[in-house]
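Give me the fold.
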Amino acid sequence: MYIKSIYDIDICTPSGKIVRMRNYEGSIVMVVNIASECGFNQQLREMEICYQYFKDEKFTILGFPSDQFNQEPLEDDEIIITHEQRFQVTFPLFNKILVNGKHAHPLFQYLSQKLPGIFGSQSIKWNFTKFIIDRDGTPLKRFSPITHIDAVSEYVETLIENEQ
């Protein structure tokens, strides 16, 4: 399937509701693959702080649980409860997906193609890979799992400031 724009992609909530990426047109979006048992899961709290700080500037974070690296044993309904209670996450979470391979979700296929990682690799290397998409739907930047959320926040802040 050829995807012309990120806004042509549909995503699904854990309850089965289809959400169109077009709903986020006009917003700066961070897409991230998450896993509750990953050693980087402390980033969830940091991402929530970033989300709360910038959400009034039309910024959102879209979290996609993935067991691609064997660190998300929970089912979709359990994932939501765990992330809301354990990590106090309020940004949108979607159903559990694959981020690599021929069965990877189209959103991650698209983002990996548009923003390859180190040495041009398109595959996602680990949980908490972060992609920033501008208000027009253009993928701008890919951050590695080890990139501290402060660096991501600074990047988002620069995007917002440059609009004014």
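The helical segments are 43-54, 76-86, 106-114, 149-163.
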